[in-house]
Amino acid sequence: MVLTKHNPSNLRDVFFPRSLSSMFNEMWNEDMNETTSFFRPSVDVLESENAFEIHLSIPGLKKKEISIDLKNDVLTISGERKQKDEKKDAKYHIGEIRYGKFSRTFRLPENVNSDAIEATFNDGVLELSIPKSEAQKPKGISIK
After folding, report:
1. Dihedral, CA atoms, 12, 17, 23, 24, nearest 10 degrees?
2. Is the domain of 24 the same as that of 54?
């Protein structure tokens, strides 16, 4: 009896020919066997009576590695998480942390004051506060 070490990438090749597999990889911009040069940080978008908030989870980055741009009511947050020195003599058993460039884009609604956007970065979470403009805030009307 011959024992063969289980290798999931070999199973992928059996069920998905290289051409089909590479098509899916190109479509999703990643390769199942290798760390990609792109990752997509998780985001929460909240709305209150006075503002919108965007919370972006990007642990392992420094403020100087993050860029926030606003052009034509489109807010773009981008940056790059660089991999630390890879240990050549170590054998990785699990490698789930994504490294590389990221970019998240948000179209802002008309009712925001884009000149008053504030950003803070603490404990790997980027928080943007986007206040609503005064003219667009709901106003109560008293009954006489």
Report:
1. -20
2. no
